[in-house]
Design goal:
The chain has seven helices and 17 strands. By secondary structure, it is α+β, with helices and mostly antiparallel strands. It has two domains: 127 residues, Probable inorganic polyphosphate/atp-NAD kinase, domain 1 (Rossmann fold, 3-Layer(aba) Sandwich); 158 residues, Tumour Suppressor Smad4 (Sandwich). Strands 6, 7, 8, 9, 10, 11, 12, 13, 14, 15 and 16 form an eleven-stranded antiparallel sheet that branches. Strands 2-1-3-4 form a four-stranded parallel sheet, with helices on both faces. A hairpin with a 2-residue loop joins strand 6 and strand 7. Helix 2 runs parallel beside helix 3 and helix 5 crosses helix 6. The longest helix has 15 residues. The relative contact order is 0.17. Bound molecules: adenosine-5'-triphosphate. The site of adenosine-5'-triphosphate has 22 residues, from helix 3.
Length: 310
Amino acid sequence: MKHIFIINPTAGKYDSRQRIYEMADHLRTAHGLDVQCILTKKQGHATEIAQKLCQTGEPLRFYACGGDGTVNEVANGIIGYDNAAMSVIPVGTGNDFLKNFGGDMDKFRDAENLWDGPQFPMDAIDVNGRVALTIACSGIDARVARDVHKYSESPILDGKSSYIASLLVNFLFKGIGSHWTVELDGETIEDDFSLVSVCNGRYYGGGFMPVAEARMDDGVLNTLVVKKVSRGTFIKFVGPYSKGQYYKFPHVARCVAPKVVRIRSEKPDIVTCLDGECITSDDVTIRLSDKRLNFFGPAGCDCNRTARDI
Ligand SMILES: Nc1ncnc2c1ncn2[C@@H]1O[C@H](COP(=O)(O)OP(=O)(O)OP(=O)(O)O)[C@@H](O)[C@H]1O
């Protein structure tokens, strides 16, 4: 078994390379493991590295060292390969993926807790052939996520404050709704929408939680469809929405669990964020991936630790 640390040197506010090299060295010396550290060189590189290694057929354990973007890229590289599994060492700005594990998040910071941890399958979301693990959102929340990196470079803003800054700018200057045709299995709705959030997990945007009951291994994608609303309603809605209380606004938000969600627009104005990484198109199809992700974590961890019933 090989242990591969894929390190995004640009993730997070501080350089974490030295700390990761020390952890990797410790696994070599204390446990005699075959460990390799690889730095990413550009966006998308983590997927290329992981996929190439998976094709060798060797048994592999990957450690995505970065934020949600790095986690997403490694997942896209390994999903579908039986010989590979992944975990995460969080050194990013937001690390929303690991929030799903609740209080166990801190255990992921040390590879000593991970290298022989249990492996389990997790669901994934397929978005036009690309994979998201936590949430695939389209609409104002995706535009906010696309712009959030501009603000997260500020030394005075943490993950959540950067998200709020981006939300305010989009809300005040760029408008809330988009005219789309949304298909939820057989149902077709043409209307103005604020957002469509397809949730496998629960967190995005530095800790916002659209659907608290979403579970990451139940084969269900909880999908929140929010029609265009006035600025006044949006202001009242956003707080409860961020805490999984969409059901307090039944005239605005509807939560369903379709097998396939398709969004179409007359122009390429559909911004869709997959775990924070954004694509823009005029036709997006989102469904449960037919592949599951092999994931490993600290003993006793649970990707549904923070899930709740309505
Ligand atoms: N060497 C590199 N140079 C520039 N960008 C890179 C490099 N390696 C990876 N990236 C890109 O950096 C972006 C940000 O990475 P990531 O999301 O992991 O960190 P973060 O933004 O600090 O964390 P989070 O998304 O959790 O807030 C990703 O889009 C990734 O593709």
